[in-house]
Design a protein that fits this description.
The protein is of the alpha+beta class. Strands 1, 3, 4, 5, 6, 7, 10, 11, 12, 13, 14 and 15 form a 12-stranded mixed β-sheet that branches. The protein has a two-stranded parallel ribbon with strand order 2-8. Strands 9-16 form a two-stranded parallel ribbon. Strand 14 and strand 15 form a beta hairpin. InterPro entries: HOTDOG_ACOT, HotDog_dom_sf.
């Protein structure tokens, strides 16, 4: 392997065909969709089967070991890792990732991105010393995930990622999903999706913030990525302290403008605009009990699983709202506010927060999904995560409909109007 080249981990289907080594009964094969065990992502297994000493230490950390005493300086190349999906040759793997439109299931891909980002963060923070206790590394946030082009399930796929920025106890990992569509495809055109994850380090014994190894970017591209990530970190800090301020009169005016049409729906529904709909009428919800199979190495439900479930609900919400098959565009910034444990009662609530029907490249549907950890025995419910997904509609679906139009979404309460304004302001700050 050339110096600095990413370590590539091949991904395979997670189980063998039930007919391998034996002829099918009566010559009939059961459809792949009916085989057992198709749920689990193959990527997590592939990552763990690298069997590195670092990961074995995480599974069985030394008891009463001292913390890492000296920080190391590492390069992005030292954490760079890639995973390869052999879709063109592994038909079982294809079936595990295929969606109804012969593309890769985005929800499963979100799981894989989080799993790979976690692996990369561990590689960067490892001190290669079996006598020290490893750090506790958790997903703090996802800066943004942007789909640049559709991802086919019939063509080999690669995800490449590395640490691009390090703070005192946090780091940013950038991932690129790469798929070459033909012999003439160049490196830029082959990037199908980009994602940036923020991980934070905690001492595994005290659970306090822990320092992480420094990062020394070497190439011009690595230095540019470091500077861009540094700027994003400063922006996040400014937003957290509420740098963007607006007068009470300004906020009241914007709230009143949003609520004007909502009042007509409430007071004079027969006269309401038929091209609009109340936000509360776009709601969907589902719930689940978090199972042991969904936990990470630290015993908690991993962020990728939460993103997967939130995406599935957001997609359904956009589908029911538009009446046409939605096309995913991006996941906006996500903060993981509260850890989710095995056995937690998790509720996902979604709505179409607002739409942008007149966009020249196609209408935009902005969906909010809020994950609540509910404890009936304590009569409590806390927000774990809030996700914001952006969809449009597939061009081929739109072409089939005459007079197609996406409705405007209007709030009926001041609380709904404030959520819309906060989301719009957050989008403006990112531009």
């Amino acid at each position: 392997m050339e110096p600095g080249s990413p370590h590539t981990i091949p991904v395979f289907s997670t189980f063998a065909s039930p007919y391998d080594g034996a002829a099918p009964i009566n010559g009939a094969r059961k459809p792949i969709s009916l085989w057992p065990g198709m749920y689990h992502s193959p990527v997590t297994i592939a990552l763990w089967e690298t069997r590195s000493r670092t990961f074995e230490r995480l599974l069985d950390p030394p008891k009463d070991a001292p913390p890492q005493s000296e920080l190391q300086v590492k390069t992005p190349a030292q954490s760079r890792t890639s995973i390869l999906y052999g879709f063109s040759s592994d038909y079982i793997l294809r079936e595990q990732y295929r969606d109804p439109w012969n593309e890769v299931r985005i929800g499963k891909l979100l799981e894989d991105l989080d799993a790979l980002a976690g692996t990369i963060s561990v590689k960067h923070c490892s001190d290669e010393d079996s006598t020290t206790r490893p750090l506790l590394l958790v997903t703090a946030s996802v800066d943004k995930i942007v789909l640049k082009k559709p991802i086919s399930v019939d063509i080999d796929l690669k995800i490449v990622g590395s640490v691009i920025w390090v703070g005192r106890s946090s780091m940013e990992i950038q991932l690129e999903v790469i798929q070459f569509s033909g012999e003439k495809s160049n490196a830029t055109d082959s990037v199908a999706l980009t994602a940036n994850f923020i991980f934070v380090a905690r001492d595994s014994k005290t659970h306090k913030a822990a320092l992480v190894n420094r990062l020394s970017p070497e190439t011009d591209q690595e230095k540019l990525l470091f500077e861009e990530a540094e700027a994003r970190s400063k922006l996040r800090k400014r937003k957290s302290v509420g740098e963007r301020k607006e007068t009470d009169d300004g906020i009241a005016k914007r709230l009143n403008e949003l609520l004007t049409e909502g009042r007509i729906f409430s007071d004079m529904p027969a006269l309401a605009d038929r091209n609009s709909i109340l936000l509360r009428d776009t709601h969907l919800e589902n719930s689940l009990i978090c199972q042991p199979q969904q936990r990470n190495i630290h015993g908690r439900i991993f962020g990728g699983f939460l993103m997967h479930r939130a995406f599935e609900l957001a997609f359904s919400t956009a589908y029911a709202f538009a009446g046409l098959v939605p096309c995913f565009l991006e996941v906006d910034h996500v903060d993981f506010l509260r850890p989710v444990d095995v056995g937690d009662f998790l509720r996902f609530k979604s709505c179409v927060l607002y739409t942008e029907p007149e966009k020249p490249d196609g209408p935009l549907i902005n969906v909010e999904v809020v994950a609540h950890v509910t404890r009936p025995e304590l009569r409590s419910s806390e927000v774990s995560n809030t996700f914001y997904f952006t969809f449009t509609v597939r061009p081929e679906a739109k072409a089939l409909e005459n007079g197609f139009r996406i409705r405007n979404v209007v709030p009926a309460t001041e609380e709904e109007a404030r959520r819309i304004l906060e989301r719009m302001d957050a989008e403006t700050l990112q531009l």
